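Hi C.,

You asked whether I'd gotten around to modeling the 694-residue construct. I have! Everything is below, sequence then structure, no commentary in between.
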Amino acid sequence: MFSRGAVLILLFSFHASTTAQLVGDELVQPPSVSSSSNVVDTYLNIKYSNWQSAGHSVINGRLFNGTHPGPTIFLKPGDTFRIAYENSLTYQPNAVQTGESYKKPDNSNLHFHGLHVSGELPSDDIRLDVQPGTTYQYETVLPENHMPGTHWMHSHFHGSTSLQVSTGASSALIVTDPPGYLPEDIENAEDVLLFVHNWQISSSESVRDQTRDEMFSFGAGNDENANAGNSFRTVNGQYLPKQTMKANEWQRWRIVYSSWLQSPLDFEIDSDCDMYLLAKDGVYIRDYPRRISQAPINTAGRADVMVRCTKPGSYDVMDYENVLMTVEVLPSDMQPIALQDWTAQFPKYLDDLLTTEPDEGCSCITSLGRNSVNGIKFDPFVYIHTAKFGSVLERRLTGLGFHPFHQHIYPFQIIGSSINGVLQDELHDGNSNQEQKNFFKVGDWHDVLMIDGFRNEIVGRYRADVHDGRMFIHCHRLNHEDNGMMAQELIVDEGSCQCGIFLNATGDLAPTIEELTQRVTDEVDWTIDFVEDSTVFDYDSGDNHISIAQQYIVGDEMNIQVSLYSYDCINQDTSNTFTTTFATEDLLLTRDFDQDFSMSLSIVSSGGQLSDSDFWNNRNMLSLCVKVSLHDDEGSRSEFKTQVKIRISGSKATLVEERQKYASSSSQRSCERGNQCHSQECSWSWYGFDNLCT
C-alpha cells in the first residue's frame, strides 16, 4: 500500500525548479515515477501554484504537484497503477457551483487518457467528484497485453475541465516496451518526451471569468526577450527550448499534444531532417516506417516519430508558421542508417477489423455538434448507445472536421469515410491536404480524432471484449465538453447492442445492474395516414414509420404527449402555438408496459380549411410533435421529442420530411432566434440542431 514516507520522497523530487527559464535553454525531461515489482504506487496533489516559463507565468494555477507538466509516469503491461489523488484546492463560495456550463472550479478528478483500463471506480470514472480538501485512492490494472505507447493524464471534472487543463493540470503516461519488443534502430534511439501544451490566454481568462474564479491569473515570463503573446505552445513547460542531437543520429520523439481547443499541432521540422511516423495515440502503425513531412496532431492526440538530421546546424521545429523549438545538430562521424521495416505485435483488442463487419445492431451514429452528442447535452442518467460485451462495434462519426472526438477505454480503428451511407475506400475528401492524407490513413487506430475541415462521415470500429460498464465519449474541445458535448455508452455482459437511449437506473456511482432496469417498450412508432379532402390525420403505433427510441426506465409509467404545431416542437412549449387560426389538441396517455395504443388528432381552423394565412410567410408547414417524458419515483428524469414536418396543399397532406430528434430538458433549442427566421426554414441535421436559418 501507499506509505507516507513515499509521499515525502515524491513531493521533494517533484518540487518545481527555481531556475529561471530562458529562450533557447536545453530541453529538460519532466520528473518521473516508474513501476517496481509490477506496481506504480504514487501520490499526486492538485494545488494552487505559481509557475513561470520564459514566455509567461501562471499565478495560482491548478497544477499537479506544483509544476507543469506534472510527473511522467512509466507503466508496464500488467502493472497495478495506484494514485492517491489529493485535492488541496479551496472551495470558493462566490464561484459558480451549479448549472450546465462552467462550474465548481476547485472540484477535480483524473482521467488516464489513452490507457486501456476500466471506466468504473476505483479506476478511470470521470463522474467522481474529488472535492477540495479530500483525497481519493485510484487503483486500476493494465491488461497483460496492453500495447506499449504514449498517453497522458489530466483533470476531468465536468464543469471545471477547461479551467484546470488549460492552465496546466496535465502530465504524460507512458506504457514502456518490453525487452526485445522493438527493432534495434528504435530500441537504441534516444527516447525524448515532447509534452506540448496549448496556451490560449484570453480563452482561459474567459472561462475563469464565467466561472467567477478568483484565484488564477497570467503574468509575464522570465525572459524579457520572449514575446509569447496571447496564443503559444510550450514543450515540457519550456518556451522555445533547444533539443541537441548528432548528425545522422535517430531519436524517438514522443509528442503529446496537451490541448483543450480546436487547433491541431502542425508539427514540422526542417527539410534537411527526416521524420517517420511510428505510432499514434499509443498504438503502433502497421506500415512503419511511414515518411511524413508534417504531423497534424489533433487536440489531445499523440504521435511517436523517428527523427534524424543529416547535417550539422540549427533547425527550427515549426507549428503552423510559429517556431515551437529548435534542434541543434552537432558534427558526428556516424554513418546514415535506414530504418528497418517493422510490424508490432498487436493484442486481440487491436485486431485488424477492416474486413470484419460489426455485429448485428452494433453500428450506430454518433454526431458531435451544438454542445451536444446526438442532440443531447450531457445527462448523467442517459446512455446514448448500449453494446453487448464481446461484440465488434461500429460508430459512424460526424462533425469530426471541427470537433475532436475522444473515446475513453477503447481506441477505435479508422475503417474509412462514408458518403450517403456508402463506405468509401478513400478516407479523405477534397478538403484534405497531402499532410493529412499521409498522417491519417485507413487502418490506423485513434482514441481521439479530428481531421481539420473534414466534412464526411468517418467510420470507426473496435471490439469491446476487455472492459464492460460505462464508457465516456466527448468533444476534446474542453469548452464544448464542459458545456454539454459529452455522453456515455454502456457495455453490458450478456446484453445487446442498441442505438437508442438507455437510462441509468440509479444515477449514482454504483455500476448499473441489468436486473435493475425494465424494458418499457420495444419501439414507439408512428405512421401518418393522409386522408384526401380532409384535415383529419390518424396516428397509429404500428408500421415502423418513425421510431422514437428504445427506452429503459425504472418506474411504472411513461407519459406520452402529442401536440400539433405550425413550427418545430423543440423550440416551443407544448402549451403554445404560433397561430390562432387552428386549435391544438393535446393527448396525455399513461401506458403500462407492453400496452399498445393509437390516437387521432383533428385540425380545426377558421373557415373549415387551412389557408396560407395559417402559416408564416406561406411556408404551409405543420409539425407533429411527439414528446416522451420518462419518470421514476422522484419525478421526470429526461424528455425526448421527435418531429415530422407536413406540407399542406389545399386539403391534401403530403409528408415532406421526417427527422428523429432527441433532446434532454436542458438541451439547446433549435433555431433559438426563432421568430427571426420568419420565411426561412430552420435547417436540420440528423440527431442534432444546426441552429441555422437557411
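If it helps when you're writing up: The chain is about 5% helix and 40% strand.

Thanks,
B.
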